[in-house]
Amino acid sequence: MNPPSTACVGMVPVFIVLLGSWLGMTSPVPRVIPGAAQVADPFEWETIGTEQGLPSERVFAVAVGESCLWAGTEAGLARVTGDEIQVFGVEEGLPFPAVSALAVDPATDDLWIGTLGGLAHYSGGRIEAFTQLDSGLVNDVVYGIAIDGTDVWIATAAGLNRFDQRTRSWEVFDVSNTLMHEPWCYAVAADGGDVYVAIWGGGIVVRDGKSGVFREHRDPDGEMEIDLYREDGLVHDVTSSVCLSDGIMWAGTYFGLSRFDGRRWNSFNQEDSGLVNDFINQLTTDGRFLWVSTDGGLSRLDVESGEWFSWSRATPGGPWSLTVTSESGSAESIELSEGPASATIFGAALEPDGVWLATGRGLTHGRSSARALQGGF
Amino acid sequence: MKGHRTTNPAEAGSELDAGRGRLALLFTGIALLFLLGSAIAGGRVYDRHLLRVTGRGDMPWVSCFECHGSKAGRSEARRPSGPRYIDPLALAFSPDGETLYVVASGADQLLEVDPSEGTVRRSIELGGFPRDIDVSADGARIAVTERADDRVAILDAATLEVSERLEVGPEPTGVGFSASGTSLFVAISDLGNLEIRGLDPNDPNEQAEQVGVLRTGEEPMAVALSPDGSVLAIVNQRVTPGPQGSLMASELTLIDAPERRVRERRVLPSAHLGRDVTFTPDGTFALVPIVHFRNQLPITQVRRGAVMNSALVLADVRPGGPTAEFPLDELNAYFADPSGVAVTPDGRIAFVSHGGAGVVTAVDLSVLVDLLQSGDEERLASYADDLGICGTYVLGRVETMDDPGAMVVSPDGTELFVAERLNDTIAVIDVARLEILRRIDLGGPSELTEERLGERVFHDASVTFQGQFSCRSCHPEGNTDSIVWDFEIDGIGKHKLETRSLRGIRDTPPFKWNGKNPDLQTQCGPRFARVLTRSNPFAEQDLEHLVAFIESIPVRSHRSPPETEAARERGRTLFFRSKTTRGETIPVAKRCSTCHRPTLYTNRLMSDVGTGAKFDTPHLLDVAATAPYLHDGRARTLEQIWTLFSPHDEHGVTNDLSKVQLNDLVTFLKSL
Prior knowledge:
- The structure holds two protein chains of two kinds.
- Chain A is mainly beta.
- Chain A is 2% helix and 46% strand.
- Chain A has one helix and 30 strands.
- Chain A has one helix spanning 14-22; strands at residues 43-48, 59-64, 69-73, 76-81, 84-88, 99-104, 111-115, 118-123, 126-130, 142-148, 151-156, 159-164, 169-173, 185-191, 194-199, 203-207, 214-217, 239-245, 248-253, 256-260, 265-268, 280-285, 289-294, 297-302, 308-313, 320-325, 331-336, 345-351, 354-359, 362-368.
- In chain A, strand 7 and strand 8 (118-123) form a beta hairpin.
- The longest helix of chain A has 9 residues, at 14-22.
- Chain A is globular.
- In chain B, strands 17, 18, 19, 20 and 21 form a five-stranded antiparallel sheet that branches.
- Chain B starts with 8 loop residues before the first helix and ends with a helix.
- Chain B contains 13 helices and 33 strands.
- Helices cover 21% and strands 28% of the residues of chain B.
- The longest helix of chain B has 46 residues, at 9-54.
- The chains are: A mainly beta, B alpha+beta.
- The interface between A and B is medium-sized, with 32 and 37 residues.
């Protein structure tokens, strides 16, 4: 099975969830319109948890490989093939049990694994670990991974690493040799040599692949509490995810979503768009759709029509609802009988007819209704 | 009248003599005082000099030679001068069986040999140290790795001319075409990678595009494609790094060749030094000759046969297929250094060459396959230590000349060609009768230099008890085997030591981790025999030759990627620094460059770096290839030396360095 497009990177570990709670963020309450017959959930939802063999129900990252699905949990890595789940922990070679980021190398189908205690490479059944104590990895807390050709880009708590698989050499980019003024790299995306890094409190730093020159995108108004001027630039400096598609850069922050086409910026917030929640954990795109994983549910933006599909819960443990918001702002909602395992969604991975979600209560599979009977992995 | 004093001439002479004697005594006294003063002053100068250079006041007497006795640097660690031997290292047949290609590693040539006539038809000069060869399925192209030049030469078989040269990673070894001829697989031994290049068979001038990099085991040496082209097998020479004291293993890497995916990395427990791999004709099994080692036991147990033995790995390459190691040695007869492997076209017999024994072993494959398929997991694991079993599958052994290695069976299956590397010949063996039919002389020099004779001693296991191992068994290609052995007589595992590389050690006495051996003659002489080989020491002449060879083992020219140049320079500055990042002066004894003084990067003195005692300071040339580190191999990587094993700056002052600076320092060291 091939992922249709870029698996965008970005991972928010547990303490960020706690931070969100501390900041008083809550899930939005969608307007439920009884009898809105034209709105239908395009997905059927099914969740895999510890009962099925996951090592933990707290799933922080998910990635789609050619013949399997990978889930990074708080207590190890799971390889899902059909009904079979194979678990990899420290004994199998992981440097640390909590898996925070995953990236499948499209050229090799190998898996790169970020943990809160180092980096690992899965190839042919063997896991090779790298830590700051025994390799050039700059820091053991890995938040994001991106693969571009033979380069593996690693976003860590103390800067950005490049590991060149062809030469097996390491390079470090941090506050000492780039424009970064914060070292907390939360996510990284790379394409054709260009690298985009989401830095917590530092906006987006971009490295030009040809020149090696860095430039940065910051929130021009500099306000930490509000976005003072709309669409003047990045919505906020606290960025958590970055994602590329067709020349468009999407940046997820804890205060909304930004879109940049190279000239103009657009901002999307919970209050003025179909975005389900401003606290964004990760962005994923296949070019047509942008998937936004948040602390308050899941949103999908049709980048062509501007239409939003957002799944949310009014109360924790309450029923799910789906809200469809057009580009003009009109919205319709329906209540759903099923949905993802949790509204705390850490990340998504796309397959041709569905989406996999890493949530705080398990690994949820959203199968497109038309394909639901055909089965997945 | 003024009286005259008259003197008897004899008396006068006596007085003169007495005066001279007093004068001589005086001068002698002055000289002695001068010498005494000079000695005292010299001693003070010596002490001051030693203190200034080493920063240490605890040094015992150190002769001037220790530091000033040699001007040698890496530039003088070179390939032996004199005649260039052929050193046939790899063989391949053309698909029609009419041509035998011979990689002449020592002569930097590819030879085209008429296999029936035994004559060299044509030859072509290639780059440094050509290592492996493959012929495309249609026979039109030949690929040869040029190991020292980091290239692969693609040759037109019709003209025997190079049509293309591919720049690849450092130290390419094994090479193989894909079944369709549209891809080339190249094992990069320095990095543990497999590079995959796309080829356009219709346009030899089109530069091969890199289409993938896959991970292999440590130091991959050979690749083989299954007959149907579906699986590429890669075998590696060194063990996978692991925590100190853990059971070590190498691997058989299986690649889905058409999809270019690592399918499986099959663990080969307690196995290493895999240098060749081949498939059975049906493609079901891969065969790898290996050395099965037992480093958890004291090496003094050599008399019990418990140190290492030769084995043949048989692996069912189908997903989930079984793998087992089958010993090739007998309880009282060992055949050291298994090197090459070949299988007859009917899949009936497998041949393994034993470089250290000068023997080729013929194995009945049907028996091995039965054993593999009939045993449960526990039984299969037990074969590795069962030296009594090989009588059931060894069909016979054929003695060869020095260091038999690469082998190939003629396409009609009647003859086995064996490269006798250190004899510059190819033995042709009758497969049916297991007898040598003839020998092809590749035209090497008739003169045998000291180094050449020593190289033969180095690769000859006959000096060890029952011929269990040779020098090469622990120092493959002159390097370390990366294994920590228990060398000491105590036999209780108290003194475990990592094998040291022999590359470039000529001017780095003393030898041995405890620095007790002042020269290589002592290092390799009677004491070595007593501790390690448990047999008679080398004959005096052999020992001199052996030392001459070891002294000629060159340091590899290490290649660093150009993009690391800036980091290397920053690291160099850190290596030679005298002040910390806070501006404090680093004591001389705690500076990197004090103990690891260029150009050899050792001061050849003993130092305590916090590992329990004083140990000989190793040189750092090609240090990247000599993991693990520290005397007992406790540091799996260079980084660990400082992040884990120098908590109080015992191994130089480094605790002030940031992680980025430490990375730079390591990058510099890896460039040496």
